[in-house]
């Protein structure tokens, strides 16, 4: 199998998004758009990943500081897609494998599509292979031009199309795979012969065809995958599509989602078999939910939440950075933040952990088999022993627990 590299274009400024933040850092279902492109590359065995950054490059690098397999390449001036790839000339100079070129603002990319692209490239032994899409409305996209035999002849930008070419629905969504040495040679020949005086990667494709190299186009990109994100409206549309994918995967793995249209689940969440997610539940961040749980309706699970098996969270219950062990019940209007709750604990309606004193966040630990009555307030930092019984309306601090430490029944009352 050929060694494979990827160049991901992430240097542009998006004026249409009206943002101070790099476009590729805008989130789709809890993750930056760029993260999805990186994962798709990793899934198809890419070992060398070069991300071309420009506008607010430091922010992008900081967000992906833990991505040890990424090398950052700075495009000081945004002079077009071919120029962006050419910024990686030094990194790719001695590389003899295949190079993927992708856009960092395409979060709906699928590794299955890249697999098809790679398979076609290797089967045809082509110099370059494009994955194309067929759209009902191809407005704005470059059209794929084929001859009578279906052979790739070139790409015509929308603004340059004739009336007949505008009727073509097969488009170029910028999924490229090149023989690396051929790519570098083609890039050197690209000229900025256009109104914007930019260097376009599509001109490199045209140059390869003109010089007799084999260029192949395979229709493999789903219409939804072809959508780049260039506006807040498109960001919202991409998030809805990604949310459907997330929920579909969970349901295929044995999770019941009662009302998908009124449920939101982060891409980073993991949910176990036979768990039921009731309507208007919002799960955000790195959240782990075990098997046979029932969550919602109107539940809010935040980053750092871990629910073991057979946990029930009811209406208007919020959990944040907390671990709830097997059999915990918190059915009504509770807040559990920065806490560890033991097995088979019952949390009564309206009970909360008071985890922030205005300066520090404290942690609450509740032992196994405890009963916490309705309206109780647990003031962190706090440790409650196994089997404790907290009466309704009780305000519990570590000082009050220590004062009652000698009592055998572990009752903590107001």
Q: Can you describe this structure in just a few lines?
A:
The protein is an alpha/beta fold. Helices cover 22% and strands 29% of the residues. The strands form seven sheets. A nine-stranded parallel beta sheet has the order 12-15-18-21-24-27-30-33-35, covered by helices on one side.
List its traits:
414 residues, alpha/beta, Spore Coat Polysaccharide Biosynthesis Protein SpsA, Chain A, UDP N-Acetylglucosamine Acyltransferase, domain 1, 2 domains, nine-stranded parallel beta sheet, seven-stranded mixed beta sheet
How would you describe what is shown here?
With 414 residues, this protein is an alpha/beta fold. It folds into two domains: 4-219, Alpha-Beta Complex (Spore Coat Polysaccharide Biosynthesis Protein SpsA, Chain A); 232-412, UDP N-Acetylglucosamine Acyltransferase, domain 1. It is 22% helix and 29% strand. It contains ten helices and 35 strands. Strands 12-15-18-21-24-27-30-33-35 form a nine-stranded parallel β-sheet, covered by helices on one side. Helix 7 packs across helix 8 (201-210). The N and C termini lie far apart (70 Å). The relative contact order is 0.09. The mean pLDDT is 94.
